Amino acid sequence: MKKAILIGDYEIARLHPLAGIDDALREVFKDVFEIYTANEKVYPNLNYNSLTQYDLIIFMSEKWSITASKELVASLVTYVVNGGCLLAIHHGLIVNNTYELNLLFASRYKGHAPYCELDYLPTESDCSLAEGIAPITAYDEPYMFDMDVFKKTNVIMEMVYGNYKYPAIWFHYWGKGKVACMAPGHSAESIRVFAAPLRNIGIWMSGDK
Amino acid sequence: MKMKVFLSGDYTYPLFHPLTNVDQEIFEILGSNIEIALNTEHFETLEAWDYKKFDAVILYNDHWIDKSPTVHQQVQALIDYVVLGGGLVVIHNFEPGVDYEIAQMLGCSLKKTLTPYERRLIRYVPAEADHPILKDINSFEIEDELFDLYHDDLCEKTILLDAKLDNGVEIPMAWSVEFGLGRIVCTAPGHDIKAFTNPEYRKFLRNSVLWTAKRL
Question: Is A103 in contact with B97 (Cβ distance < 8 A)?
Fold first, then answer.
């Protein structure tokens, strides 16, 4: 089975500790990826060579603003541009102190309204990643983003907030690698609710193309 | 030890901007302490480790799009080189921006030339940034093309030069980017040899190469 590494914070996280989320991701990706974890004491020391031992990086660091180094950012970009897979979930998308990752994600986090019940709708995308995805109603934080003007991404689910729809889950190739982003994912329960699109992303990322 | 630079541009089939003659000016601008270790229009097959032999890469390629059959490797190799600490100076030709990842890294892509059939005397003024490249650089004028560029707001740039129009409007025409561990300068002036003979712009270009190579 292919290997994934979950990068995030356990003890120093204030709102989004990975405890519980790690097991929810193991359930979602069972038979696709074996998930290892790298906590806040481990992941700051990762480099390109150690990252290439994994087929997928699941990125959920909440304290990225204090744990990130330029070297680690460079390693993540190199990992992806050379063919690695990067999945950023929820608070992992708040990386405004390292704009290079915003470029990879083709988005920049703007902010969010309070936690509430939200409707998520599949887009009319005809790509395989959109197959079998039904509308989802879930409690989460309505994250909003500025999308990149150059890198056109593929949005497969949108969040309804007020009278507008906002990108919620999207994916694209970046260099030789693959990137996917999921704005919801505030809790372990939220990860389980979004199991269908997450599994589709996992299967795409575990493939050769 | 002498700095080693890779210079690329189009000699054989340039669209509008041959490197012929411009290359001699660039050699002089860089001076005897900087060696042009490789000068070729073909770098489709270069890998990231090939680039790592160079302290900086200067691109003046206006034929980038025709190298598309191997463009993914070019994109991967260039980004890899820069993000891990390489230096990149892109002069006038923003066609590398036809590849989205490169456009994101440079922070721009060419929208159109505002003066397609004429050259206009353009006044370039240093921006207010406290940047080593701008040390001792004064305003200057060059008869050149004026570009309308798409900018990527997600890319964090430091504006270095603005084109100051007669109506007072200032348009960013050169900027620096720190991308991962590497450094980039994009600069628009340089349609033909006239730009490269301007003393202030020559200083600006030399400073740009030195800064991207972390020698300034």
Answer: no
Local structure of residue B18 (DSSP, 8 states): B
CA distance B96 to chain A (A): 13
Task: Give residue-wise pLDDT tens across range A35-61.
Answer: 999 999 999 999 999 999 999 999 999
3-state secondary structure B66-115: HHHHHHHHHHHHHHHHHHCCCEEEEECCCHHHHCHHHHHHHCEEEEEECC
| CA distances from residue A204 to A135, A192, B172 in whole angstroms, order as listed | 20, 19, 41
* Contact between chains at B180 and A176 (C-beta distance less than 8 A): no
Q: Give the contacts of B164 (CB within 8 A, at least 6 positions apart).
A: B123, B124, B125, B139, B170
C-alpha span between B65 and B48 (Å, rounded): 20
The closest of A209, A176, A73 to B76, measured between CA atoms, is A176
Which residues of A lie closer than 8 Å to B, measured between beta carbons? 70-71, 73-74, 77-78, 81-82, 99-100, 102-103, 107-108, 146, 148-152, 174-176
Quote the ipTM score.
Answer: 0.92
Interface of B with A (CB under 8 A): 72, 75-76, 79-80, 83-85, 97, 100-101, 103-105, 109, 150-156, 179-182
Residue of B nearest to A84 (CA): B76
* Max Cα distance, chain B (Å): 48
Q: How far apart are CA A104 and CA A179, in angstroms?
A: 7
Say yes or no to pLDDT of A209 above 50: no
Token pair for A122: 């599949």
Q: What chain A residue is nearest to B84 in terms of C-alpha separation?
A: A74
Distance of CA A37 to CAs A40, A51, A53, A70, B145, Å?
10, 12, 13, 21, 53
